[in-house]
Amino acid sequence: MPKVGMQPIRRQQLIEATLQAVDRVGMGDASIALIARLAGVSNGIISHYFQDKNGLIAATMRYLMNVLSENVTARRLALGDNSPRAHLQVIIEGNFDASQVNGPAMKTWLAFWATSMHQPSLHRLQRINDHRLYSNLCCEFRRVLPLDQARSAARGLAALIDGLWLRGALSGDAFDTEQAQRIAYEYMDIQLAKQELLEHT
């Protein structure tokens, strides 16, 4: 019988082992046996907590998404400035946080995106993640721009964040967080400047 309180510890061990396995050999070759060995547990423990590999992959992605969400929330709570620009800036920072641009996380995100096109449960997670980013961006742009322009600005910034992240992940070099943030901030400022144009027309 498992010890009381072991479930969250075991689950986290297996999620971290999954990130390590994907980093080493890719999602396709990250077998249950390899993940279990990296976690220091038996194969049956994975079945006990996650049913199968797809369940473990889904749990690993929810973990990465939760870390992303928590990072953005923490940055927002620390803000002394309630302006739309400040809130948009912390969303950008959260998406390029070290927790999202380290090797294991990037390889797992890339593999997840590819696999989600064929796995309905993973596809739902991807849709949730996409909608969360777009919705958060749109909410802030809407504070200063008409709805149509806010939606367009949010789509553009979401695509830019994803694109910068993807190019960085595929470059093979260390992720240049400063450059990615600078490019995203420039686009953000261009969109926010439309407010001034509206006020002077």
List keywords for this structure.
201 residues; elongated
Count, helices: 11
Question: How helical, in percent, are the residues?
Answer: over 70%
How many β-strands, per DSSP?
0
- In whole angstroms, the N-to-C terminal distance is 72 Å
Radius of gyration: 19 Å
Quick summary:
The protein is an all-alpha fold and 201 residues long. The protein has helices at 6-25, 32-39, 43-50, 53-77, 84-95, 98-101, 103-116, 120-141, 147-171, 177-192, 194-199. The longest helix is centred in the N-terminal third of the chain and has 25 residues, at 53-77.
Write the layout of secondary structure elements.
Elements: H1 6-25, H2 32-39, H3 43-50, H4 53-77, H5 84-95, H6 98-101, H7 103-116, H8 120-141, H9 147-171, H10 177-192, H11 194-199
Report on the structure:
The chain has helices at residues 6-25, 32-39, 43-50, 53-77, 84-95, 98-101, 103-116, 120-141, 147-171, 177-192, 194-199. Helix 1 packs across helix 2, helix 1 crosses helix 4 and helix 5 runs antiparallel to helix 8. The model has no long low-confidence stretch (mean pLDDT 91). The chain is built from 11 helices and no strands. The protein starts with 5 loop residues before the first helix and ends with a helix. The protein is elongated. The protein has 201 residues and is an all-alpha fold. 28% of the residues are buried.
